[in-house]
Amino acid sequence: MRVSASSMQEIFRDMKFPMTKDQILEQARSKNVSSDIVEDLQMIPDREYESADSLIRAIEAASQQVGGGGGGKSQSFGGSGTGGTGGGGPSEGGSSQSFGGRGGA
């Protein structure tokens, strides 16, 4: 969800529930809400919502399914050892890779 729950509460508090997804989208557009909110609303299941709270929970659940939580991958390769029979000193080294990302908002 790109918009805070408190902002959503403020936007939806004047709406008369229960409302269907289509009715909610129509109301949101008539209030000229941001495109981020409209996109969030388009992700919710097509059903009737009993309250602003139930709507916000649906938005949060839908955004987690689509955007996922935090993401990232980390790999590290390292080690130490001693040189082989031909002489040579100790060898230490390693490689580290990090692939990180931010999940949904």
From TrEMBL:
InterPro entries: DUF2795. Residues 63-105 are annotated as: Disordered. It holds the Pfam family DUF2795. Residues 66-92 have a biased composition (Gly residues). This is DUF2795 domain-containing protein. It comes from Methanosarcina thermophila. The lineage of its organism: Archaea, Methanobacteriati, Methanobacteriota, Stenosarchaea group, Methanomicrobia.
